Amino acid sequence: MIVPPKPPAREGRFSLWRYVRAFRRDILSANPERLYRAKMAEFRIPFLHTFLVNEPPLWRRVLTEAPMDFPKSPRMAAGLEPLLGRGVFLTNGAEWQRQRRIIDPAFEGGRLRDTFPAMWAAGQATVARLQAAAGPEPVEIEAQMSHSTADVIFRTLFSVPIEDETAMAVFRAFRAFQGTQPLLNLAAFLPLPRWMPRFHRRATLRAARRIRALTAELVAARRAAIAAGRAPDDLATKIMTTRDPVDGRTFDDAEMVDQVAVFFLAGHETSASALGWALYLLALDPDLQDRLAEEAGRELAGEGVPDFGAISRLKLARDVFREALRLYPPVPMMVREAACPAEFRGRKVETGAQVVVSPWHLGRNPAIWDEADAFCPARWQTPGGRAAARDGFIPFSAGPRVCTGAGFAMVEGPLLLALIAQHLRVAPVEGRVPRPVAQLTVRAQGGIWLALTRRAG
Ligand code: HEM
Q1: What angle do CA 396, 208, 80 make, to 5 degrees?
Q2: CA 405 to ligand 1 centroid distance, Å
Q3: Residue 228, CB half-sphere, CA atoms under 13 Å: how many?
Q4: Cα 234–268–217 angle (5° rounding)?
Q5: CA of 306 to the centre of ligand 1 (A)
Q6: pLDDT per residue over 277-297, tens digit each?
Q7: Which residues contact 195 (CB under 8 A, 6 or more apart)?
Q8: Residue 329 CA: which ligand 1 atom is closest?
Q9: Is 432 left (phi over 0), alpha (psi -120 to 50) or beta?
Q10: For residues 397 and 335, is the Cβ–Cβ distance under 8 A?
């Protein structure tokens, strides 16, 4: 049985001050082991009341049954506002509903099929880059995967590869932005005053401004191309020409800049995190890699872009990717705020209380999963595994605010994994066991280092 790295849990009782310090260091290791099987936890510290809901009926109530009673928490939104403006990731109520009505059709099944050639091209570029990096020196795979998933986003959204000058400039500015965002998940747990996450460092603001200025150029150029009738049929064109079925209006350019920033943030760091961990998990199991390479060789054979149906036949790649999402959900916790009084398990939840749903804890809850901490892709083909998933697998969230890109990510992730396994072997590097920490997404402290070798033939 393979048990991959899990952050050490907190031991013993903490004073408030030590608790705050532990949270600031790393949100994943600040909590005790018993939280993994708890039905609910309540954190009451001065000026802040937070519930972590960990049993299926409770997370269902928050996310799917009464989502309007638990809108996104402004404590979380504040940290991302300089980058995302009023993007769909942050808004609530009628504004958010309108945004989803325009965006969602671009991510429906038929459109996903249309984006497939662009994803395929990004996959080919990834293989070429990794083959060039293969050799005696270990490779930091998280950075490689960020590059690949940014490439996927640019190719599918704007029909340009990441090597395009503007795309590369956005990508670089984004790295600067995320390096300065330590406070994000903490806001729900720490008695930071509400203005605290707004207290952005100058570097964060500068990076956000640069990303938005570059994005505005892309949007303006696309607007002109649409008007001239020479726009490519990609996600940007689709979204910019879709009218809200209710009010009949399309996004204006400012609204579109906000959404592009969201796609970039929500759509590449998350997939990169999942792929980095999936490749580490594969590195621990050489036999599984061989089976994956065999599956890829069979299903993706032939010249040119395979038919889209091949994706549904990459069963093993999909199971590995899902298992990575279960063990290392890129968005480890989601934060909502009670908009009206409620009651959870007999405890009063007052308006303004913070409510945390934790894919991280659900994915490793031993009351839900057999061998919860073990890497076992085969579980996805068992009735028990599928039943556990209904209760404990929400890496894309659930309910009306479910990730818009979930279907997209479930094509991109298995495809890239399959292509990489087909052409390369990955192995762990001695002395470099990655330790998961929650940054903007779940990352390894110091990166994930792997030895890459080309497969023969
Ligand atoms: C493995 C990859 C991904 C994971 C694990 C993931 C996860 C999530 C989660 C958990 C949320 C909800 C956050 C919350 O409620 O606080 C979310 C929202 C969102 N995601 Fe993803 N995501 C992934 C990939 C993508 C991709 C590829 C795109 C677009 C191209 C995307 C676009 C979005 C958008 C637009 C939202 C906001 C939806 C809303 O609030 O209504 N995501 N994602």
Answers
A1: 40
A2: 6
A3: 9
A4: 55
A5: 27
A6: 999 999 999 999 999 999 999
A7: none
A8: 5
A9: beta
A10: no
- Pocket of ligand 1 contains residue 414 by CB under 6 Å: no
262 lines ligand 1 (CB under 6 A): yes
Question: Relative to the CA of 157, which ligand 1 atom is closest?
Answer: 30
- Measured between alpha carbons, how far is residue 3 from residues 6, 252, 326, 375, 418 in Å? 8, 49, 13, 6, 22
For the chain, the maximum distance between any two Cα atoms, rounded to a whole number of angstroms, is 66
Q: Whose CA is nearest to atom 16 of ligand 1?
A: 334
Name beta bridge partners: 452: 426
Please tell me the distance from the alpha carbon of residue 25 to that of residue 186, in angstroms, as a whole number: 10
Pocket test for ligand 1, best of 403, 441, 442 (most atoms within 8 A of CB): 403
DSSP string, 39-67: SEEEEEETTEEEEEE-SHHHHHIIIIISG
Is-above-0.90 flag for pTM? yes
Q: pLDDT for 143-192, tens place per residue?
A: 999 999 999 999 999 999 999 999 999 999 988 787 655 445 555 566 55
The residues that bridge with 424 in the sheet, in sequence order, are: 454
Residue nearest atom 15 in ligand 1 by C-alpha distance = 334
